[in-house]
Amino acid sequence: ADAGPGDRFALRGPEGHQSAALGVLHPAGDAPTRFVALRKGGLTTIPLLQLSHSDPGGPPPSVTLLFGTMGSAVRLTLVPMNYVFSSIRKADLAPVVASLGYVGATHSDRWDPSRSTHLVTSEKKAAAKGIMAWCCRRPAVTKGYVAALVGRRDARDPLPDPADHVPPGKDWDRDLVPSSGPCRSLLGYRVACMVDDDSEALSSSAGAEVLRLHDGEVLPASVRDDAEEVRFWYDRQMARAEEDRRVLVLIESSSKSCKALFGTLKGVDGIRITNARNLAKAITSNRGAGDLILDTKRVPIQKIVGWDAEPGTAADEADGASGDGG
Q1: What confidence score (pLDDT) does residue 259 get?
Q2: How far does Cα 107 stand from its chain's mean position?
Q3: For residue 39, what pLDDT is reported?
Q4: Facing residues of 274 across strands?
Q5: pLDDT at residue 153 in the model
Q6: What is the pLDDT of residue 128?
Q7: How confident is residue 275, by pLDDT bands cut at 50, 70 and 90?
Q8: Pairing relation of β-strands 118-121 and 140-141?
Q9: Which residue has the higher pLDDT, 295 or 17?
Q10: Of 316 and 208, the one with more pLDDT
Q11: Of 182, 146, 129, residue with least CA distance to 290
Q12: Which of 11, 90, 136, 261 is most exposed, with minimal Cβ within 10 Å?
């Protein structure tokens, strides 16, 4: 099994049949390089610390067990599960959350496109979290799904089928046709968010880049508190976005925390402003194929020519050459 520094029983590298077994279990070349020997009278537990959720962005962690010298081996891999709960009463939610540890699952209050795996809700509706789950091709399930998962008594039993635990409510996504991969309806836009709310995750779930104006490292307080500096700073951000073949779009907000900032940004020449509702509509339009974002005056915000060109491609290089000449 994989192990870290300070192992009490160092085991030399696998040989013969053991090497062959590792080759079968780790075809991608990610076989462990350090091992711990589990001996009678020595270690009494298998070191499974690696099976944690400490690095949700990386590949699923695993532990490989070698039995004897004849090549018998087992690879234990964590199936990442991070639940986001919505529209569930606190009294009903508490026992569900308490049960997650028994299946190695975690939960979050907010949707994270790179980490969230299930939306657990009592009602299916076209709200922000439901749309984000659809964009990420993640299932929306009832808390009965978690109960069925915890209730498994044999590791050989299949995992519960999300189709058996669909929440009641409006079948808003019935006519949407998902692509084979994650949604990319908002690719070509760079969305500026003044507050840390669902607009950020909604945008990135659909392929948009995000500019976090509420982050002090992105927009320093020394700039934020000076109206003239803010306008100059945002104007530069629009120019940079255009250089990257992106359209910078500001998400309006009624939050008191950004009232002054929003008032200042409205005065920036050429600024495009939209809202979360228009984001959702752009994502789900045309049966899920997406459409242009409408600004607050319901005018379509056009993407920049070449927004879909991959960096380094012939089209990208041609656009760059023509741009230099102009």
Answers
A1: 96
A2: 13
A3: 62
A4: 251
A5: 87
A6: 95
A7: very high
A8: parallel
A9: 295
A10: 208
A11: 182
A12: 90
CA angle, 87 then 88 then 93, to 5°: 150
| Band (191; pLDDT cuts 50, 70, 90) | very high
Write the DSSP assignment of 260-289 as a string of letters.
Answer: HHHHHHTTSTT-EEE-HHHHHHHHHTGGGT
Q: How many CB atoms lie within 10 A of CB 121?
A: 23
Element (H, E) at 82: strand 82-86
Could you identify the residue written with the tokens 């990442």? 80
Cα separations in angstroms, 42 against 7, 15, 64, 102, 252: 12, 23, 19, 27, 62
Burial class (CB in 10 A: 0-12, 13-18, 19+), 305: exposed
Question: If DSSP codes are grouped into helix, strand and coil, which group holds residue 73?
Answer: strand
Burial class of 255 by CB neighbour count within 10 A (0 to 12, 13 to 18, 19+):
middle
pLDDT at residue 7, rounded to an integer: 39
How far, in Å, CA of 140 to CA of 48, rounded?
A: 30
CA angle 116, 246, 296 (to 5 degrees): 80
Q: 14-38 burial, b if ≥16 CB within 10 A, otherwise e? A: beeebeebbeebeeeeebbeebbeb
pLDDT (tens digit per residue) in 94-117: 999 999 888 888 899 999 999 999
* Phi and psi, residue 212, nearest 5°: -90, 90
For tokens 């927009």, name the residue: 219
Alpha helices in 188-326, H assignment, sequence order: 198-205, 221-224, 227-243, 259-265, 276-284, 314-325
Strands 72-77 and 82-86: unpaired
On the question of pLDDT at 284 being above 60, the answer is yes
* Nearest residue to 251 (alpha-carbon basis) of 299, 204, 295: 295
| C-alpha torsion sign, points 166, 278, 293, 196 | negative
Summarize the confidence of residues 294-312 as an average pLDDT: 90
- The pair of three-digit structure tokens given for residue 303, joined into one six-digit string: 């993407």
Q: What DSSP designation does 103 have? A: G
- Smallest CA-to-CA distance from 261 within 204, 314, 220 is with 220
